[in-house]
Structures are given as C-alpha cells and as structure tokens.
Amino acid sequence: MPIWVDADSCPKVLKEILFKAAERRQVQLYLVANHSFQIPRSPYIRAVQVEHGFDVADRYIEERIESGDLLISNDIPLAAAVVAKGALCITSKGRLLTPDNISDRLTMRNLQEELRNSGVQLSGPAPLGAQDKQQFANQLDQWLQKQPKSS
Q1: DSSP 8-state code for residue 35
Q2: What is the pLDDT of residues 7-41, one digit of tens each?
C-alpha cells in the first residue's frame, strides 16, 4: 500500500521523515507536485511532476489512490475525497483523518473559508513545531506497523 504526498505543501523536514520510512519499510512513496524537487535515489521513492493549475496535483492523487493507501496532505477537500475511497490521511501536524472525523474537519474548513470570504481575518496555521513533527512521525509509524512488509 503506497504513500501519496501532496508535495507542493509538504514541509521538507516531513519529506525527510517519509524518505527514511519508505527505505526502511520498503514502501512505495509518490510525491506529487507541480514543480520539480530533489528526492533521494531509491526504488521506493518517485517524484511526479504534474502541470501547473488549480488542483491538478490533487486530481492526480485522487484518481490513483486506492483503499488502504495513505495520503500526506493538509488539503481537507482532497483528504475527504480519498477517505471516501477507503484511504487514510495524515496532516503535517500529525492528525489522522479517517471516516470518523473527516466530515467534522471538512465542515470546519468550509466555515473558515466562508468567514475569510466575508472579510473576517483569521490567523493562519501555527508553524510546525517539534511536537507536531513527533506526532507526524508517530502516526506514520502506526500506519506502517499495520502494513505487510515488502519482501
């Protein structure tokens, strides 16, 4: 079961965690973005560069992700779409998005968007901290533990 990364917004420090995990567990890792970036040489890690455009990377992932796969993304509408297909999502802050909690997250995201569109100033997300990185690594490790190891 591969890991898909919405790489346009994935912090470099989390990509490094993902690179190490893909090698250690021999799991396929696809990083999808509309720009080029460096990845380590590995049979398990692939960079996919899509065309520029609104939600092009999201559509690429959504069309290919399958039940049981894992998505790394902060994009709640994308997470909702892949969770509906049976995949799971981990945000950069290490929050696991599942069928049990995705509708609440989507409702909150839509409310915040409505507020922003009506002129209400909302603060952006807090910077990624050490606790967030640890939570991300823990969630990733828990997902990996449940996967059969490649031979």
Answers
A1: S
A2: 988 999 999 999 999 999 999 999 999 998 889 99
* C-alpha–C-alpha distance, residues 145 and 138, integer Å: 10
- State the DSSP string of 116-143: HHTT-----PPPP-HHHHHHHHHHHHHH
How is residue 86 written in tokens? Answer: 């049976």
CB atoms within 10 A of CB 84: 11
Rounded-to-integer distance, Cα 73 and Cα 79, Å? 7
Tokens 């059969």 correspond to 148
**Exposed, middle or buried: residue 128 (CB in 10 Å: 0-12, 13-18, 19+)?**
middle
Neighbouring-strand partners of residue 72:
5, 90
Tokens of 129: 């901290």
Cβ contact 23:42 at 8 Å: yes
Dihedral of the CA atoms 7, 13, 14, 17 (nearest 10)? 120
Contacts for 51 with CB less than 8 Å, ≥ 6 apart: 34
94 token code pair = 């290490």
pTM: 0.86
